[in-house]
């Protein structure tokens, strides 16, 4: 019985030593705070900011048209009402189309930029692991628990800031 217990303990300690040097990173923090991710967000704002402002202007214009229609419809002729209603409907359709188009374009560009940032992060993590003798670097999404002592997110963030 003692021999069996000793063998099990020996195997268990061997497995722990075979695991090597391990760490984990919080990808969410890296995607929020890395200069590459911040630059990508800035690029999105620069590229799509004007379109968003135009949509806000169109929405405000539609609201103004509706307000004017509600106030003045009692004194409008049937032809004027029809023209105002058609104008409101046409602008609402245009707003919906432009909004959907912006969402699709923004999402496509966001995915493209996110992929580039993820590649940069992966490259830095691999280099950091190789240079510092890590056998495994896990992401927080694949862990049930990890001690803060093996969290290297800040170190990876520093490396990304140097890139």
Structural overview:
With 163 residues, this protein is mainly alpha-helical. The radius of gyration is 29 Å and the shape is rod-shaped. The two termini are 57 Å apart. 10% of the residues are buried.
Structural features:
rod-shaped, mainly alpha, single chain, Protein Binding, DinI Protein, Chain A, 2 strands, two-stranded parallel ribbon, 163 residues
Number of helices: 5
CATH architecture verdict: 2-Layer Sandwich
Helix content: over 70%
Kindly state the mean pLDDT as a whole number? 87
Task: Report the uncertain regions.
Answer: 1-17
Give the class-level CATH name: Alpha Beta
Shape descriptor reads rod-shaped
What is the domain total for the residues? 1
Major pleated sheet: 2 strands, parallel
DSSP strand (E) fraction?
A: under 5%
CATH topology: Protein Binding, DinI Protein, Chain A
Q: Tell me the series of helices and strands, N- to C-terminal.
A: HEHHHEH
Between the first and last Cα atoms, what is the distance in angstroms? 57 Å
Number of strand elements: 2
Radius of gyration: 29 Å
By CATH's scheme, which homologous superfamily applies? Skp domain
Class from helix and strand fractions:
mainly alpha
Strand order of the largest sheet: 1-2
List the helices and strands and how they pair.
Layout: H1 2-18, E1 22-25, H2 27-33, H3 35-72, H4 78-131, E2 136-139, H5 153-162
Parallel strand pairs: 1-2
Helix pairs in contact: 2-3, 3-4
């Amino acid at each position: 019985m003692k021999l069996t217990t000793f063998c099990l303990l020996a195997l268990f300690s061997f497995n722990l030593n075979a695991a090597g040097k391990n760490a984990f990173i919080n990808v969410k923090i890296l995607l929020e705070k890395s200069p590459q991710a911040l630059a990508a967000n800035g690029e999105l704002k620069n590229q799509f900011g004007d379109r968003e402002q135009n949509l806000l202007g169109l929405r405000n214009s539609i609201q103004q048209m509706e307000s004017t229609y509600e106030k003045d419809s009692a004194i409008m002729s049937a032809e004027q009402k029809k023209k105002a209603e058609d104008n409101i409907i046409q602008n609402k359709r245009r707003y919906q189309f432009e909004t959907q188009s912006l969402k699709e374009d923004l999402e496509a560009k966001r995915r493209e930029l996110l992929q580039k940032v993820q590649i940069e992060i992966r490259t830095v993590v691999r280099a950091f692991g190789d240079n510092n003798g890590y056998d495994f670097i896990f992401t927080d999404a694949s862990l049930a628990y990890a001690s803060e002592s093996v969290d290297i997110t800040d170190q990876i963030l520093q490396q990304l800031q140097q890139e």
